[in-house]
Design goal:
four-stranded parallel β-sheet, about 220 residues, two-stranded antiparallel ribbon, 9 helices, about 50% helix, alpha/beta, 6 strands
Length: about 220
């Protein structure tokens, strides 16, 4: 509950600051050094600064509708700009999650539940995968058939965000392959069906220590 209250307070402060700043700038007007020189076109009264503003709202898919291109070349260019903007904003900013441990090699039920949870609707939009993290798995063996099937059952955009690496997550070279230092979250899943559970716990402790040292 405290977290929700802090988030709400931060949002309200941000809204007040942005609203007050915009209101002040509109009331005071532009200083002489920032006076715009619009040019009359079929698109309307436009200038370079207006086009910068419009491109930002277009590639971010906000689109206020205050301007629209009228020539064929500019329309074709904007189509490409929108595609680039959608691709950029759908890939940038996604968190990087790493999953290691004996549970990856054994493809335990815990791992399957983890996949269902992290790629659930509440963490992203199924149609575009927005908000879903990029998930990298690593184990010392080839990708298990059960894990491959579990990933295959995920939505298409979720499958595109998963990668499997074979290696040892305690080795520096393999950590670099996983971009361990850039990870937002590292999950160590134990193998509940391991023949020697004590050895499994020891291995996971060593993995956790290696992850801590890499950060």
């Amino acid at each position: 509950k405290r977290g929700y209250a802090v988030t709400l307070l931060r949002t309200m402060v941000l809204v007040v600051i942005l609203s007050g700043t915009t209101f002040s700038l509109e009331v005071l007007g532009d200083p002489a050094m920032f006076v715009d020189s619009p040019v009359t076109t079929d698109m309307g009264q436009i200038s370079f600064i207006q086009m910068v503003y419009w491109i930002f709202t277009t590639i971010s898919t906000v689109g206020y509708g205050d301007f629209s291109p009228t020539t064929t070349l500019s329309r074709l260019f904007i189509i490409m700009a929108i595609i680039v903007g959608v691709c950029f904003f759908s890939t940038e900013g996604n968190s990087h999650v790493i999953v290691i441990g004996g549970g990856v090699r054994g493809s335990s039920s815990v791992l399957k539940s983890f996949l269902d949870e992290i790629f659930s609707h509440k963490h992203g939009t199924e149609n575009a995968g927005l908000g879903w993290p990029n998930v990298s798995f690593m184990a010392s063996a080839d990708q298990p058939r059960e894990l491959r099937e579990a990933i295959a059952s995920l939505p298409r955009h979720a499958r595109a965000r998963t990668n499997y690496f074979m290696g040892d997550p305690t080795r520096h070279q393999d950590m670099e392959r996983l971009r361990m230092g850039e990870a937002d979250l590292v999950v160590i899943i134990t193998d509940l069906n391991a023949p020697d559970i004590d050895q499994e716990d020891t291995s996971n402790i060593l993995r956790a220590l290696a992850v801590k040292q890499s950060h």
